[in-house]
Design brief:
There is one protein chain. This protein has 9 helices and 4 strands. A 4-stranded antiparallel beta sheet has the order 1-2-3-4, covered by helices on one side. The radius of gyration is 24 Å and the shape is elongated. The protein binds zinc ion (ZN). The site of zinc ion has 8 residues, from loops.
């Protein structure tokens, strides 16, 4: 690389240095990204992080925090054959939020990442969430277990888990979960 004049002091040139780069997240979590190439002025010590190193830092942070990457987010709505808008609606996100994630302006929280991954990996859960109509006011199950995807495909597992319980009572539990709880939770209960 050619010598590049310092933006700050005009006297020095940037030299490549390999550093352990400290990162602090807004949640208070902090760690060090090893072997990040930066440019450091040999006169005033001003430091610049080049674009490829920013990408390296971002990838490292994503890996460490298990944050969903943009690629994962793109694949999610493509895998379920929905456009971005419908996907965001189905999973209960605002359009703006989802677009910010796709652009990398914001990143989903860790727990949101887990939730979306559950939906992406278990199509029957996604189908159920889609049928449920997250954004509808009347989002409880009005038809009962006959039309409940969890009920249909996982009912055996639920029955085994709650062996000896009255089936209507069990259905009541499912409705309760559906109205008040995260779908990932009812799925976790069912498997
Ligand atoms: Zn300088």
């Amino acid at each position: 690389m050619k010598n590049k004049k310092c933006f700050e002091c005009d006297a020095g040139n940037y030299q490549i240095a390999s550093v352990d780069y400290p990162v602090e997240l807004s949640g208070g979590e902090s760690f060090t990204v090893p072997k990040v190439k930066i440019l450091r002025c040999d006169s005033c010590g001003d430091e610049v992080v080049p674009a490829e190193s920013s990408a390296q830092i971002e990838a490292y942070v994503h890996d460490k925090t298990e944050v969903l990457t943009k690629d994962e987010l793109y694949n999610m709505f493509r895998d379920v054959n929905l456009d971005q808008e419908k996907f965001a609606n189905v999973v209960g996100l605002g359009q703006k939020t989802y677009h910010r994630w796709l652009k990398g302006i914001q990143t989903p929280s860790r727990s949101m990442g887990y939730y979306l991954r559950v939906l992406a990996h278990f199509p029957e859960v996604f189908d159920w969430v889609e049928k449920r109509g997250w954004r509808n006011d009347d989002n409880g199950c009005s038809a009962g277990c006959a039309s409940c995807n969890i009920g249909c495909t996982k009912f055996g597992a639920l029955q085994a888990k709650y062996a000896g319980r009255d089936i209507n009572e069990l259905a009541g539990d499912i409705l309760y979960y559906r109205k008040g709880e995260n779908p990932a939770q009812i799925f976790a209960e069912a498997v």
